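Project standup — Tuesday

K.O.: blocked on the structure for the chain from last sprint. Re-posting the sequence here as requested.
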Amino acid sequence: MKPFAKNFFFHALTWYFILFNTSFIYCPSLYGKFLNVIHEYVCSLIILLGPLYGYYRANLLLIIATVAGWLITGRCFITVMTNKTCNHDESTPFENCSFHTKRILAIFTGNDKFLLDHHLSETVDYILLFFVVSYNLYMIWLSGKMFV
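H.V.: unblocked you, prediction finished:
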C-alpha cells in the first residue's frame, strides 16, 4: 500500500471515531475536544502503528506503556482527564475501536455485559491487544531481527 493510501486510511478511520464519539460531540470545552482528538489518535496508533506502518517495535513499546498506565492508575488517565474537562460522569467510557467492538459483541450476543461489566470489558481490551502484540511479534520474528 502506498504511503498516501496508508495515511488516508489512518486519518479517515481516526476521524470517523472522533466524529461519532458522543463525548466529543457533547463536550462543551475546546480543550476537552482536543483531548478527545489526541486520545483517538493514540488509540489508532496502538492498533495500526505496527500492522499498517511496519513499526512493530515502536508499537510494542506503545502498548506496553499504555497497559502499564492502565495497571498503575486503574484507568486510562486521558479518559479521566477528558471526562473531567467535558463534565461527563467519571464512569463514561471512551468510544474508541475497542468500545465499538464491545458494542458489536453486545448486539450479537444480546448481552450488555460487554459494555457494563468492567472486568469483561477489560478482558475484551486485553484480547484485542493480544492479537496486535502477537502480530507485531510475528512480524519481528519473520524479519529475523528479534533481538536487534
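K.O.: great, moving the ticket to review. Helices lie at 3-19, 22-25, 30-53, 56-73, 77-85, 97-109, 113-116, 118-143. The mean pLDDT is 89.
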